[in-house]
């Protein structure tokens, strides 16, 4: 895997998580208190930095075969989850992910929550909302950085790609002062789901002792195969009786009629 491919893979995956975290932070700051929201954001970033700093070097001492097997399995778990949601959304069986609707829902909930002061934090609700949102989305970013970076023995480059994704999304969000509703997140999740599933299959098989013909040259073959299979499922699901154009904030599946 080349350095540019590693950077691009981590960057795209982290953009999706950064957009979701940005939506929560903007809702907390807009409806409540920006100072407390900033405290929550900063605390979460410190915790995430510590996690990457500890896990990254620790994984470098794991034997390569065992590391690839574990990383491959974990990537398959994450990748198939993302791909499943993307297929259901594209097939009309799951409501599309709408950051604008989610932002409004978070904003309404934040405005009605009672105010509470704890220590230096003047608004505990804003702090916890920001902290939990950034930490949960950031843990997926940390996972992507650690797994991709450790497997390629280049955690710093993976961390740089993640940092660039966060900076780009944050800058765009600050400039727009709104969630990035125009970002094609559903398409990104489909692409990232295919990408994570592809690397999961590739590295997991290598960790189990398989040899791919052409080594890394097998990746451009596996990825289209996974994408075509996923698109085939979308075509099967997109039946007139099952289609729905509903757009709601929660991740709620639509029951077939």
TrEMBL record:
TM stretches of this protein: 6-27, 39-59, 65-83, 124-149, 155-176, 188-205, 217-237
Coiled coil, from the record: none
Superkingdom as given in the UniProt entry: Bacteria
Presence of the UniProt keyword Glycoprotein in the record: no
Keywords: Membrane, Transmembrane, Transmembrane helix
Listed name of the protein: GDT1 family protein
Species name: Amycolatopsis nalaikhensis
Classification of source organism: Bacteria, Bacillati, Actinomycetota, Actinomycetes, Pseudonocardiales
């Amino acid at each position: 895997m080349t350095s540019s491919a590693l950077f691009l893979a981590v960057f795209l995956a982290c953009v999706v998580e950064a957009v979701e975290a940005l939506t929560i932070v903007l809702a907390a700051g807009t409806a409540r208190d920006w100072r407390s929201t900033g405290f929550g954001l900063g605390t979460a970033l410190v915790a995430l930095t510590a996690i990457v700093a500890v896990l990254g070097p620790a994984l470098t001492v794991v034997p390569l075969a065992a590391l690839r097997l574990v990383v491959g399995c974990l990537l398959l778990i994450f990748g198939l989850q993302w791909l499943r949601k993307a297929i259901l959304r594209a097939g009309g069986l799951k409501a599309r992910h709408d950051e604008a609707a989610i932002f409004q829902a978070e904003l309404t909930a934040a405005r009605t929550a009672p105010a509470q002061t704890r220590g230096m934090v003047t608004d505990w609700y804003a702090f916890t909302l920001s902290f939990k949102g950034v930490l949960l989305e950031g843990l997926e970013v940390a996972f992507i950085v650690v797994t991709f970076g450790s497997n390629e023995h280049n955690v710093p480059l993976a961390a740089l790609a993640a940092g660039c994704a966060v900076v780009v999304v944050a800058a765009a969000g600050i400039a727009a002062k709104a969630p990035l509703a125009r970002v094609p997140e559903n398409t990104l999740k489909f692409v990232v789901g295919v990408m994570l599933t592809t690397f999961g299959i590739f590295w997991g098989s290598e960790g189990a002792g398989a040899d791919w013909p052409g080594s890394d040259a097998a990746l451009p073959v596996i990825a289209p195969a996974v994408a075509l299979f996923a698109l085939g499922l979308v075509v099967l699901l997109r039946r007139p009786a099952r289609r729905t154009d509903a757009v709601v904030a929660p991740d709620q599946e639509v029951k077939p009629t």
